Amino acid sequence: MLMLAQELTTADNAVINVFFAVIAVVAIAAAVRMVTTSNVVHAALYLLVVLSAVAAVYVILGAEFVAATQVLVYLGAIMVLLLFGVMLTRAKIGAESDLDNEQRWIGALVATAMFAVMAFSLWEGFSDERMPAAMQPQRTQAVADEIFSTYIVPFEALSVLLLAALIGAVVVARRD
Amino acid sequence: MLLNQFLLFAAVLFSIGVYGVLVRKNGVLILMSIELILNSVNINLVAFGAYNGDVGGQVFALFVIAVAAAEVGVGLAIVLLIYRNRRSIDVAEANLLKG
Amino acid sequence: MFAAEAAETALPWLYQNVWLIPALPAASFLLILFFGKRLPYKGAEIGLTAVGAAFVLAMLTTFTWIGDIQGAEGAEAPAGEHGETTDDHEGEGGSGAEEDEDEHGLADTVLSVDGESVASVSLTAATTAEGEEGGDSHGEARGAAKIATLDWFSIGAKTFRIGTLLDGQAVMLLFVVTIVSGLVHIYSTDYVNGDRRYTHYFAFLSLFTAAMLFMVLASSTLQLIVGWELVGVCSFALIGHWWEEKPNSDAALKAFLTNRVGDIGLLIGMITLYFGAGQTFDILTINEKAVNGEIDKLLLTVSAVSLMGAVMSKSGQFVLHTWLPDAMAGPTPVSALIHAATMVVAGVYLIGRLYPVFFIGLEIPGSNLNLMALIGGVTTVGAGLLAFVQRDIKKVLAYSTVSQLGYMVLALGVGAYTAGMFHLFTHAFFKACLFLGAGSVSHAVHHSFDMKSDMGGLRKYMPTTFWTFIIGSAALAGIPPLAGFWSKDEILAGAGVWPGTGGNGTYYIPFIFGIITAALTAAYMTRTVWLTFFGEYRGHGEPHESGKRITVPLIILAGMASVVGFLNMPGPFVDALGLPSGLAHRFEDWVEPAGQPNFPPQGFTHAAPSLTLAIFASGLALAAGYLVLRYYQGLYAKDPKASEYTDGLRSKNRMAAAGYRVLEQKYYLDVLYTDIIVARVKGPIARAAYWFNQNILDGIVNLAATFSVGMGRFIYWIVDQGMVDGSINASGRSASASGQFLRRIQTGQIRQYATLMFGAAAVLVAVFIVAV
């Protein structure tokens, strides 16, 4: 995929656009299915598809390290975690009777309203803004430099946060 | 490529994620929808980073991914605990805050 | 007759301190009220001493005054010499007065008109040689008033003075009041002995004497009014002395209220004079201005007419005389003092005091009839007729008093000033004598005054009373040579109708009334004397002569009644008898202030006495008396114990009966006053007042109460419970209700919270987009 991405950046934009369109459609479809399916495991799988698509979009945007991290963390760890959670909470294998609550229409309304607002503001704000012509993939070294110089403090804080989350999760889920 | 296409794509995902959060009964599914939302935000961040030529967008996205991971861990721990205590992860039943 | 030298040493002091004469009885009044009950004679001794002292002072003043007049007169020598003497005299008096100021510590006393009196005397002395006035043998001026005044009070720039005005009239009345009061005091110690309110009686007698003297000596009309009212109050108190019996208190009220009606006139008259005379109350000033024509004639007439109203009530003229007969409900000495000799003459005195006002205001000179003469005339005849139908001896005497007062007013009305004053003087004595005699009689017949049922033939039992009563009656009837003859004759002469009299006008009708009354007086007095003293005793007790304290005053008064007439003998009479000419017209000289700036007014003349008139009047009186005597002798012959004919004229003739009834009902005046005027007015007013009280006053009070209750209820229920509590409860309820309402938001459902959050975020962003 990396090689493909390298190729693509120097190739015709139209091709990238097509690729992007396809990925977007896939992602959106998967997302929709995720929130509407009545099978919990299927929802988890659909999420997996979406996350992958997002990783692909990162690659298109030239953020290779982020794409790699996305795949590793999300697809590797978080999805597993969610699947474990599904299993431990005795989700039924197969379709369940009803996974939606009674707020479907209000929820749809609110979601649509949010999208409308956001789309409108985006269109107003960023219409016809073009991405830079050559989206070179950023070198991982640049990202590392940035993290460990400018954002060193947040990095450390993040480590502490992860520690806290770890301990917290253990404490919370402990059987006693 | 338009900047907007990425942003709109992210907006769509965000909305779908919101729909999922509001509509789903299962706690785990709500967590999944929250992940969706976080990812859409990440797309925004990276898109802007690429637009501005600033690597800070990616950095931030990395941070978000890390935090999301922590959050899912803790969230699932809570959901498991609720399941253990109530034998159900229907969030509608966790209405002890009802006034 | 009187020693002039006795006067010189006491001259300034006595005149200056003549205020002591009323002050002594006033002090005695207070002393008796406070200490009387504890004294051995229950206060009578204080009263007697005070009146006695006042009498002594009055006598001294009288002698001094007479001496002054004699002194001023006795010099008909050249003006110059005389002027000096009199100037020195008065000059002495003036400086003496100033010395005396320091001596007696009366630093405030000012002989305010001293300069004037000096001037007037020197003026009069200067005019001695000049001439006479009005055909009188005494041409010189005499009798200037002596004034002593103090500042009383000030209002703004005006200062009002209080003090004494001493002139002939005042001296005369001082004498009369003190002597009669003194004799009445002595009499009272026997008459009201053992009475339930002995001390109060004497207290009021003293107060009355003080008030009367105060009025007599008044130098300003204000003082006069004060004295006038005060004697009215004392009259009220004394008439109602036995007020436990309702008729007595009714009589007292009647007296007081009738006088009140007249007092309206008094006030109007005095106020009019005050303004007419340039805002002064001083009597001398008013008189002077009237004489000089400085007061508007209309004002004089108005005040004269108003003051006539006052005279009508106080001096018992028609139509306000109705109180006087009823006033006989009081003790007899009171009747003698107040309602015969002194208080009732206050009205006459008032006229005499302000004579120029009346003289000019009522147009006395040169006319045929004026208000005063008419009233006086009607009174004499009307009261005289009423005296015929009375059973009560005191009522006869009361009507007789009214009749004689009418004579005095008549005299003053026709311009016979001296005659009126002289009649006042003589009347006091013989009327007091008659009243005290009546008291003595009633004492003997167990306090009854009814002639027809309880008296008769008393001359055998009470000779002293009988003889004094006869003398008094004869004096009253005008039989010569007793006092009444002289004064009454002068009045009749003063009417100016009888040929040869002259006078201030020709008053036909008053003259006729006077003549008729002369006859009537003799007639009814004869009737009274017969019914009381002649015939057989019709009563039930053992009558006997009264004690010394009663009979001695009677004798004194009878003696005076016989003798005082000679004080004013007419000139021709004196000449005819060959007596010294100085004895003629003594009284006139002493009393009438001639040639003074305050008297007499323009056109004033003296009538000349007429022998024929005297003979005619006396003859008429004797004839009338004789007729009545024959009438009663006939009755006696028929039935010794009868007091009236049972088959007399009344029962035979209807008109006579009707006439008798009219007289019995006192011309229906009492009916008019009490039943018609008062009742008609009293009833509606009382009812209106009651209605007003119940409906309006009580209504207002009830309304206020209802309002308060309503307000209370309103505030409690509506404001407090409703609004205040309500709002507080409402706030509580609204808090809980809103809480209940808002609680529904807290469903405990996360999805709802999330929905709300996201929805709100969307809205907010939209707002930002639109607004910004």
Helix proportion range of chain A: over 70%
Largest interface, with counts of residues having CB < 8 Å to the other chain, equals: A-B, 87 and 69 residues
What amount of the residues of chain A lies in strands? under 5%
Main pleated sheet of chain A: none
Q: Kindly report the oligomeric state of this protein.
A: heterotrimer
Provide the helix percentage of chain C: over 70%
Structure description:
The complex is a heterotrimer of chains A (176), B (99) and C (772). By secondary structure, chain A is an all-alpha fold. Helix content of chain A is 76%, strand content 0%. Chain A is built from 7 helices and no strands. The longest helix of chain A is centred in the middle third of the chain and has 25 residues, at 64-88. Chain B has a single domain (3-86), classed as Helix Hairpins. Chain B is built from 3 helices and no strands. In chain B, 62% of the residues are buried. Chain C has 772 residues and is mostly helical. Chain C has helices spanning 5-16, 20-35, 44-74, 79-104, 114-128, 168-191, 198-216, 221-239, 246-276, 283-292, 297-314, 323-326, 332-341, 346-353, 355-361, 371-386, 393-413, 417-444, 451-454, 463-477, 483-494, 508-533, 548-563, 571-577, 586-591, 611-638, 649-652, 654-664, 669-743, 750-771, and strands at residues 146-155, 158-166. Chain C has a two-stranded antiparallel ribbon. In chain C, strand 1 (146-155) and strand 2 form a beta hairpin. Residues 1-11 and 76-140 of chain C have low confidence and may be disordered. At the A-B interface, helix 2, helix 3, helix 4, helix 5 and helix 6 of A face helix 1, helix 2 and helix 3 of B.
